[in-house]
Amino acid sequence: MNEKIIIYFDGSSIGNPGPSAAAYIIEKENGEVLFEEGIFIGESTNNVSEYKALIYALNKAKEMSIKEIELRTDSELVINHLLGKYRVKSDKIIPLFKEAKELLKNFKWEIKKVSRKEMKRVDQLAFATAKSGR
User: Fold this and answer.
1) Distances (CA, A) of 105 to 7, 70, 100, 122
2) Closest among 102, 107, 58, 52 to 78, alpha carbons compared
3) Beta strands in 1-134 (DSSP E)
4) What percent of the chain has pLDDT over 90?
5) CA 70, 72, 13: angle at the middle one, nearest 5?
6) Cα gap 83→68, rounded to integer Å
7) 25 pLDDT exceeds 80?
8) Angle at alpha carbon of residue 102, lines to 60 and 126, rounded to 5°
9) Which candidate, 45, 112, 99, 97, places its Cα nearest to that of 89?
């Protein structure tokens, strides 16, 4: 797929740590949804959930032969890690960060911080999946 694709990703942890989920939505620039998924990941933290959402989304985009992506999230931590502005210190996050960086080599990519309002659909998907426990 040669056009730029938008990927919203979000994690949710009820209790932090608590029942957690990762969710992402892959869509065209015109808003047409190509794929969306919420994945229950068990007991985890919000930051781990955010990274898992990113990794699941990148794997799916690679599977779909997408070449150019614009990542959208409200996670300043993930953004600043990926842009090299923050060091990754957490032992739980380091392997996830490395996996995400490796996957990003498959794409021409950029990442943008967006408002909670823009994240509403993917946030609801992540929360509902975490709450359902499956």
Assistant:
1) 16, 14, 9, 24
2) 52
3) 4-13, 18-28, 33-44, 68-73, 108-113
4) 96
5) 140
6) 17
7) yes
8) 40
9) 97
Kindly state the tokens that stand for 82.
């990926």
**Crossing angle for the helix pair 46-63 and 120-132, nearest 10 degrees?**
110
Residue appearing with tokens 């990941």: 41
* Least confident window among 24-28, 44-48, 92-96, 130-134: 130-134
In angstroms, the CA 131 to CA 123 distance is 12
Q: pTM of the predicted model, to two decimals?
A: 0.97
Q: Cis peptide before 17, with omega less than 30 degrees from 0?
A: yes
Domain 4-132 in CATH: superfamily? Ribonuclease H-like superfamily/Ribonuclease H (3.30.420.10)
Six-digit token string for 111: 């990442």
